[in-house]
# Entry
Amino acid sequence: MPFAQLVIGPPGSGKSTYCNGMQQFLSAIGRKCSVVNLDPANDYTSYPCALDIRSLVTLEEIMADEELGPNGGVLYALEELEANVEWLQKGLEGLGEDYVLFDCPGQVELFTHHSSLRNIFFRIQKLGYRLVALHLTDSYCLTLPSLYVSTLLLSLRSMLQLDLPHLNVLTKIDKIASYGPLPFDLEFYTEAQDLGDITPHLQGENPIMRHPKFEGLNNAVIELVEDFGLVAFETLAVEDKKSMMTLLQAIDRAGGYAFGGAEGANDTVWQVAVRDGLRGMSVRDVQERWIDRKEEFDEMERREMEEEAARAREAMDDVDEKAEEGDDDDLEEMRRGVPDCGIKVVRRP
# Structure
């Protein structure tokens, strides 16, 4: 039974960067992984692409032939893929039991109310794939209360639309300290509870929010999100190994991979560690690492990298020295000449 991640999110949230990083991470821990590009506007991928929608249809062709703009062209392309989903199914069959990452387009209407992407996902499910939707959002949204509330609403709508195991992820968390102090701890934003506490900050962001009309609207949106009780967030710093491992553990639990993957008894140490719950980062760990003590941790990691590089250089020097000693021994042996074996060779005149 193959497993897959459906990577969605608005433009600039880091979907392609995530697919590239996760593909490398999975390969490093011994989990065979392939990436499928479903974005017809993505004419350059930083990862090796197992399947690319642009071999079926390109955004440039659609815009020229159908006289559509970029957004309309992407919607048309996904409708074209839905109509020719057999092309995708055939390509996926060729990937066997590979763990698959689907890099999806960034138009939010595709995963909030347009049906094509959802229908494609359901067809993939029928092939036996265990799917997890991964909704990425730039952590910059935490800096403004209005952006955060909008993100909550978008995340909730996506979860209801796709109707799949779903994780919301705040990306670029390693940059959050550079945006200035937040009014709440990170746990407030990731848990998305007691959201009424954010109302005064909404009013402070813009005087117009103090009007009773907007106050009522904000309260209604907050109550809606709290009543569903579905939205929460994971965090991610894509270049940090421990952050990637923590997120992968959450994904594996959501999709069922944690209860036994296709590799079975052939799992590597890393796979067993990730599956069996090697301790990752709690939200308080993330707060400490990337917000409260970021500079201190950065300096510690810099020193560790320098020490590791120094050890690597020393190991290389030892290898070179041993190689040189071996060469000297060979030269000395050649100088000694061939030993006398007692046989005298007489040349005929």
User: Anything to note?
Assistant: The two ends are 83 Å apart (CA to CA). The first helix runs from residue 15 to 28.
